[in-house]
Amino acid sequence: MFNKHTIILLFILLIASILRLYQLGSIPSGFHADEAAFGYNAYSILLTGKDEYGKFMPLTLRSFDDYKGAIYSYIDIPFIGLFGLTEFAVRAPSAVFGVLLVFLAYMVSYKLSKERNFALLAAALVAISPISILLSRVQSDPLVAVFFVILGYYFFLLWLEKDNIIYLILNSALWFISFFTYASPRVFLPVFVFILFIFYFKKFSLKQKYSFLILAALVILTGAVLIFGNSGQRFNQLNIFNTPQVMLPLEEQIREDGTFSPIFLTRLFHNKMLDYSRYLIDNFSQYLSFNFLFIKGGLPSREIIPNTAFLYLVEFPFLIFGLYKIFSRKIKWGYFIVLWLLAVPAVLSFAADETPNVHRFYLAILPLEMIVSFGVIQLFKSIKTNKVLYLLFIILVLVFYAQNLSYFMHQLFVHQPVHRPWNRGFAYKEMVVSLNKYSPEYKKIVITKSLSSPYIYLLFYSIYDPKKYQQMGSPRDYEYKGFDKYIFSPNDCPLSAGEKGLDPIRGEVGVLYVNKGDCLLPKYDVKLLKTIKWKDGSSAFKLAEYKPKKKNK
């Protein structure tokens, strides 16, 4: 049972686990508001059966006036039950699914290629992939959704091979779950089933053809309902057809034509079809650019690790060689994964903001690493007869990968904590701890909400009773409203002395004010209690109270 390949796979999984679990609760440094929201909603459902807004067992979570899939919070419940409401507990599902994805990469790669060495290498590359390590170390519903998508595809392959309807049911169930985990599968899977139709339909028995058509219809209809229905609010906000980023430049070009061009020429050169096409092509090219894949990476800003990208730079030549070998040798499964790879940026091109986006593009991680692995294996085979060159090549590949991995880990553990730490809300934990300490001494606490959504940090780090919060009507942090002693201000400086620190201050006695760190306070009538700093040493918040001097009679 424990043959050479099994031992190697177990070693790969061990390395994957170490890379994902070591200091999981503290690296990446800081805790983003989305992480806190998923964690607190899991805690709320655990204790009350309802999310923070009092909705019973929801499939989608309302969060910061947006809607997200709720599956991650349900998965997180046993971890919070075991470890409490902590950063580690919230991130633990991502780490577990990150390791499972490595194993799944091996299973799918072997199922497609029938080559164990290739499958082991593909698994190893997913294990040490920079984006895989990063997303496994934060709360990552995109990673979990990708796991469900790929596991569903694996069951599809089993159904194709064994013709057992149970596998197709599992395939359908996993894809349905992925719809309520993250938004990207809703637009990707309808295209993916079309790709499956192209590559596998001739292999289907008559019964399988009917079954597959039912699966395809369910996927397409469910995806359409979720995209365009009530839960598709996020897509409606992000798609290029509802964004001014295309319409405003188009209107500007039409206006610049003025009266100098005939109207038919204006419509010929400046129209929605041309401008939307350019925008789509630009988005598509950004996802496949050298800069995004190998140099700089992409958005969102909270997932930016300085000087690291989606893949390692060492993988570039192997990716190119792998593509060349797939087409020169006419590898059928290679054609499939290339089409899978191209389908991801094709569907993502319709999103207007935060492009290129590593969360959405993670759907492409397996085909990318499989192509890279194929390139490495083919290079090995091409020089195998020259033992000296073969040994040198092995050493160089190991050295370059080790250097790329160690550099990434250095950037993650050393540079990320001090590189723009406000992107991950590092200072909010200390702020909440300090407020809990000072709270008994004040009748009210006024907090700036200019940087993020402070209410979710107050709920999370105070381990606030969700039943009590729901009974208040889930008040959030709307302007000049709040809960308990907390009132939230849209102003950077609720206790202000003006831009130059000279204006007369208007404050209320017995109130604790939380100002943004760069706010100026007057020298008199204010007591500065504490300055909370970001990890780079810059000021994040100033806790102060209005304390006017008593006038002599």
Describe this protein's structure.
With 553 residues, this protein is an alpha/beta fold. The radius of gyration is 27 Å and the shape is globular. Among the domains are: 99 residues; 120 residues, no CATH class. Helix 21 packs across helix 22. Strands 4-5-3-6-8-7 form a 6-stranded mixed beta sheet, with helices on one face. The protein has a two-stranded antiparallel ribbon with strand order 1-2. The N and C termini lie far apart (92 Å).
Produce the secondary structure layout.
Elements: H1 4-21, H2 33-48, E1 60-63, E2 66-69, H3 71-83, H4 87-113, H5 116-128, H6 130-136, H7 141-162, H8 165-179, H9 184-200, H10 206-228, H11 233-238, H12 244-257, H13 263-269, H14 272-287, H15 290-295, H16 315-328, H17 332-348, H18 358-361, H19 365-382, H20 387-415, H21 428-438, E3 444-448, H22 454-461, H23 466-471, E4 482-483, E5 486-489, E6 511-516, E7 526-533, E8 539-546
Parallel strand pairs: 3-5, 3-6
Antiparallel strand pairs: 1-2, 4-5, 6-8, 7-8
Sheet bearing the most strands, described? 6 strands, mixed
Number of strands: 8
**Oligomer class:** single chain
| Proportion of helical residues | 55-70%
Widest sheet, order of strands: 4-5-3-6-8-7
Span from first to last CA?
Answer: 92 Å
Radius of gyration: 27 Å
Shape: globular
Mean pLDDT: 90
State which percent range the strand residues make up: 5-15%
Helix/strand-derived class?
alpha/beta
Contiguous helical run count? 23
What would a concise description of this structure say?
It contains 23 helices and eight strands. The protein is α/β, with parallel strands linked by helices.
